[in-house]
Each structure stands twice: as structure tokens, then as C-alpha cells.
Write a sequence for this structure.
């Protein structure tokens, strides 16, 4: 900060009003006692003093660190997804999952939910969704009801909050466009075990841009 030139003396007009109680030339009391010296708002100091003041300023008021940037929705979803991924299949606490704005009764792992919200924002119609996250008890129950369709309890992607079962226009839209958002009808659901309504989330499909 080269503000002080070699002028010998410079005048610094400091914001010392709060300190200065009055002009330095105030008359002394008639009884001859000396008043304590006062600081005037206008002080004449040497160049060296200016440098000292600058040094002191640098030491006393270091620049505060910039505030950390607010996390993006993707970063929040990623953090919550990592937390949910620590639970065994079908045992994720519901508050570790995210609901869907267009299907508020359904819950998914938060990164999968965010990707489906992105699809919705991109024009995916919302239609009947029958399943999303499924608890282990729910999977056991389903396996009893539909043993030919339901996955072995503890192995379903529904138990990880990474699958949905959808019907109607939403199903058709996801078959057409879902991969762009990480949601696909897996190969196993296209043959013997035919489940065109079942979609799974695979974040590898999103690439590094996600
Ligand atoms: Zn399913």
C-alpha cells in the first residue's frame, strides 16, 4: 500500500471524533492546573508512523475468511444419499429418504428422488406410482403375495430407495427419456420377469456432470 510518499510529513485525518473530546487548543483553566492532553481529529505524523499504523492495521484486522458457499441441492442430496446407503436393504429410516413433490407419499434415496424431480421438471408426466422405497417387512409381505414377481427380501432395489413402479404416461415417458436422468427399466425386467413398470436409479448413467 504505497499511499505514503516521501514527503517527510503527511497529515492524516483520522476518524477519531469519538476519541477527541474537543479541540486541542481549548483554554486552560483559570486556576493554572493542566488539562490532560487531548487528541485532535487532525493529527500530523511522520511517514514512519504511517507505516507503523498500516502494519498495525494489517495485524489487527486480518481479512475474514470468505463464507463457505451454500451447498447446492445436488450436494445436499449426495450427502443424504451417502447417509442412507449405510443402512441394510429395507431398513433405512424414513427421515433419511426424500419425498417427491408430485407423489408425496413416496420416498426414495435423496439422489434418486432429485433425479426424478429433474425429470419431472423436464416434462415427465406424473401418473400412478404404486411403489418406491419398500421396507424389509413390506418386501417379505410382497414376496408372500407375489412370489413370482417380488425379489428375494433383502435384495430388491426398492429396499435401497432406488426403484419405482409406475404406470400410465409416466411409464411411457421414462421408457423414452429416463436414461438421461439415471432411471432405466433394467434388462432383467424385459424378459422372463417382465416388469415394464419397474424403473431403477443408476447414478453412473448421469456421468460426471451430475
Ligand atoms: Zn418394482
Amino acid at each position: 500500500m504505497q499511499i505514503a510518499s516521501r514527503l517527510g510529513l503527511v497529515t492524516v485525518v483520522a476518524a477519531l471524533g469519538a476519541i477527541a473530546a474537543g479541540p486541542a487548543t481549548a483554554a486552560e483553566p483559570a486556576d493554572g492546573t493542566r488539562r490532560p492532553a487531548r487528541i485532535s481529529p487532525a493529527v500530523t505524523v511522520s511517514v514512519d508512523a504511517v507505516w507503523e499504523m498500516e502494519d498495525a492495521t494489517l495485524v489487527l484486522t486480518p481479512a475474514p475468511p470468505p463464507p463457505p458457499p451454500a451447498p447446492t441441492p445436488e450436494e445436499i442430496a449426495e450427502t443424504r444419499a451417502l447417509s442412507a446407503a449405510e443402512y441394510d436393504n429395507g431398513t433405512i429410516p424414513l427421515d433419511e429418504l426424500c419425498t417427491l413433490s408430485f407423489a408425496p407419499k413416496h420416498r426414495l434415496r435423496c439422489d434418486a428422488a432429485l433425479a426424478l424431480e429433474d425429470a419431472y421438471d423436464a416434462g415427465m408426466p406424473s401418473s400412478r406410482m404404486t411403489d418406491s422405497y419398500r421396507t424389509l417387512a413390506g418386501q417379505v409381505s410382497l414376496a408372500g403375495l407375489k412370489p413370482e414377481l417380488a425379489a428375494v427380501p433383502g435384495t430388491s432395489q426398492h429396499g435401497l430407495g432406488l426403484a419405482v413402479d409406475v404406470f400410465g404416461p409416466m411409464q411411457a415417458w421414462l421408457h423414452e427419456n429416463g436414461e438421461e436422468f439415471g432411471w432405466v427399466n433394467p434388462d432383467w425386467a424385459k424378459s422372463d420377469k417382465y416388469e415394464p413398470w419397474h424403473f431403477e436409479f443408476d447414478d453412473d448413467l448421469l456421468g460426471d456432470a451430475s
